[in-house]
């Protein structure tokens, strides 16, 4: 199944997608992780896109569409994929329709206070990319990843002033996708109103929707 997870920064897209990938056996593709990887490896592209990412702006469509199109050509995407952080503009959604199409869009509805509390306490593993939260999803040992022992860090773009900018960018450029996909009958809403709701509960809700759509569409 070709799944898009839509929602504001801090809605839990990466956290849920990293669990769904194990249940469904299809790859979790995060364009944010791809962007951070290019920046970390200091590639030519990484140097070009760092300034956008650091200030919370979107990387230009043509660059990110090229990156994603290359990734979707790989063998592991044949049975489907879970997209996290793509599309983020109408132009990207149109490009995705041409490249591969979409079966289901899960829209995560999360109130602003939950988003801000999540992002300002988010911790990421520098080695494997696992996501933690200093309030709600603490590692067993402070500052260390449970899975691989890597050091945890705060993302450059999770600073308060950048969070505000990312929320603005989301409203202006990404929110119109809700209507875009609703019109095509592909959108399903899943809400999380309480910051303490554990990821397992949300993943269960999302899995219920996925199973329903699988049945409806005979996938
Ligand atoms: P994320 O981890 O999804 O919050 O993405 C981190 C940053 O990477 C964003 O703030 C953008 O600068 C860039 N980025 C990730 N995905 C996209 C996309 N689909 N379009 C444009 N920029 C993106």
Report what the structure shows:
It contains nine helices and eight strands. It is globular and about 45 Å long. Helix 4 (61-72) packs parallel to helix 5. The strands form two sheets. It has a five-stranded parallel sheet with strand order 2-3-1-4-8, sandwiched between helices. It has a three-stranded antiparallel sheet with strand order 6-5-7. Strand 5 (122-125) and strand 6 form a beta hairpin. It has helices at residues 13-24, 31-40, 44-54, 61-72, 90-99, 112-120, 160-174, 176-183, 199-217, and strands at 2-6, 28-30, 81-84, 104-109, 122-125, 131-133, 152-153, 187-191. The chain has 219 residues and is of the alpha/beta class. The site of adenosine monophosphate has 17 residues, from helix 2 and helix 3.
Summarize the structure.
It is built from nine helices and eight strands. The protein has 219 residues and is of the alpha/beta class. A hairpin with a 5-residue loop joins β5 and β6.
Annotate the secondary structure layout.
Blueprint: E1 2-6, H1 13-24, E2 28-30, H2 31-40, H3 44-54, H4 61-72, E3 81-84, H5 90-99, E4 104-109, H6 112-120, E5 122-125, E6 131-133, E7 152-153, H7 160-174, H8 176-183, E8 187-191, H9 199-217
Parallel strand pairs: 1-3, 1-4, 2-3, 4-8
Antiparallel strand pairs: 5-6, 5-7
Helix pairs in contact: 1-9, 2-3, 4-5
The structure holds adenosine monophosphate (AMP).
């Amino acid at each position: 199944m070709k799944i898009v997870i839509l929602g504001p920064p801090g809605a839990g897209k990466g956290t849920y997608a990293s669990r769904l990938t194990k249940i469904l056996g299809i790859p979790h593709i995060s364009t944010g992780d791809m962007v951070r990887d290019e920046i970390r490896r200091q590639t030519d592209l990484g140097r070009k896109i760092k300034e956008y990412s650091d200030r919370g702006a979107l990387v230009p469509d043509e660059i990110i569409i090229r990156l994603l199109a290359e990734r979707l050509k790989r063998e592991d995407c044949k049975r489907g994929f879970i997209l996290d952080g793509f599309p983020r503009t109408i132009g990207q959604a149109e490009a995705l329709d041409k490249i591969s199409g979409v079966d289901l869009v899960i829209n995560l509805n999360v109130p602003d206070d939950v988003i801000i509390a999540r992002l300002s306490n988010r911790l990421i593993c520098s080695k494997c990319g696992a996501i933690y939260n200093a309030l709600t999803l603490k590692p067993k040992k402070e500052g260390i990843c449970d899975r691989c022992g890597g050091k945890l860090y705060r993302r450059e773009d999770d600073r308060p002033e950048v969070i505000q900018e990312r929320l603005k960018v989301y409203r202006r450029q990404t929110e119109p996708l809700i209507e875009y996909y609703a019109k095509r009958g592909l959108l399903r809403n899943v809400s999380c109103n309480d910051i303490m709701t554990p990821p397992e509960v949300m993943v269960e809700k999302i899995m219920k929707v996925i199973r329903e759509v699988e049945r409806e569409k005979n996938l």
